[in-house]
Amino acid sequence: MTLITVTNLCVAYGANTVLRDVDLTLSSGEIVTIVGPNGSGKTSLLRAIIGATKPAAGQVQLSPRLKIGYVPQKLHIDQTLPITVARFLRLTERVPLSKCNEALNAAGVPDLLDRQMTQLSGGQFQRVLLARALINTPDVLLLDEATQGLDQPGSASFYRQIEMVREQTGCAILMISHDLHVVMSASDRVVCLNGHVCCQGSPAVVASAPEYRALFGAGTGGALALYRHDHDHHHGPSQKAAE
Amino acid sequence: MLDDFMTRATLAGIGVACAAAPLGCFVVWRRMAYFGDATAHAAILGVALSLALELSIFSGALIVALIMAMTVTSLAGRGYAMDTLLGVMAHSALAFGLVAVSFLSGIRIDLMAYLFGDILAVSRTDLLVIWGGAALVVALIVWRWSALLASTLNEDLAYASGIDPKREQLILTMSLAITVAVAIKVVGVLLIAALLIIPAAAARVTARTPEAMAVTAAAIGTLSAIAGLRGAYVFDTPAGPSIVCVAAILFAVLNLKGWRGKGTA
Fold this sequence. Notes:
A: alpha/beta; Rossmann fold; 2 domains; 9 strands; disordered C terminus; B: ABC transporter involved in vitamin B12 uptake, BtuC; 81% helix; 0% strand
């Protein structure tokens, strides 16, 4: 079943067109990753899907009563705003505490309910954001560079968590990522964006596509192979990936 | 009971404090502390207009404050930070207000009276206006609380939950405008601005949730109004400033206790 259909989407800020003629579909249970250089319109695409940006042309169609769980790129909580994890999880949904605990477990950070949001570590914070997105058992999870600020083992384990969430809940996942290596192996489909859709397909297809190579260089093709193995251990700085 | 001017003053102070407390929390969280000042300055223009057009002070101040609230909301996010916008609006509204006042031949208005108000001169009708306005504002904030909070935390998060943060911002600024308008004649714009910021800032020390902060702020504001007016009566000091002094002392005491409790700053 198709959950999100984006057709001929154009997004412009003033005279500056950031997205043109973007077509994208997301079906239930799929993990689709959007990659692209800075300024390629990745975040604008997600913002258009959640309704935060009005399209200049084209349209975004969501299936009726689609529940979206959204994990923003960065969320700054002002020091003057006291808020516990429990309260943050129930920001817009009046759910019982037991569901909050379930969501925290699913996000891999149990027992944080009474902590202040501003006192969490970067990794805990991102996982609480994930838990909040999971709280109303969404049909689609939208993640905008959710691992920003996490180190490599941290983001690898975050993405493993996402895969587990998909397995457990069956929700579709549309995510933006800079971590080409980690992400590619987990995705069913990769969309390479640079103002328009350059190429899309399975990770292996995209990694070998000339458009993708032109944007990211050939070096990252090797990284895909490197990170395809199960990442159940930590190792030193990954020079291999950089080479 | 309402025959006593001290009782009326206290009730007026509590009314303003209760409306200002939850609004003040949002003002602090959104870093728009100058909003009180800006709306206040704009209200001076409103006072001039109401004298020129023979409107009530309340209507004049409300109209100008609402216009300012809507202008700020529509300009926000177009390349200006909130403090810059508020600065532009505050100073231009004050300047236009003073120029407008100079056109009113034959009428002398005491601008100081509107800056500091005269809470001891609160009439029964004033009380009705204050409590009516305060009830409206509190009802509005309670009704929109979750949506306002989500919009304050992150606009995209709000959008994804089906909330329009622009609309919530407008509701917030309009509530602020109403609060300033109902209170300007009696308690003065400086007292409103103080009752917005200081109780909310003081409540931050102990609160663990946004709701607790709003309720604590209301309690601190109420206590300030009661103790300030009592102090003004006993020591024969000006009423409005005495209320602000008590709030400031409560802020200091809570912060000192907070420091000692944590052992660190």
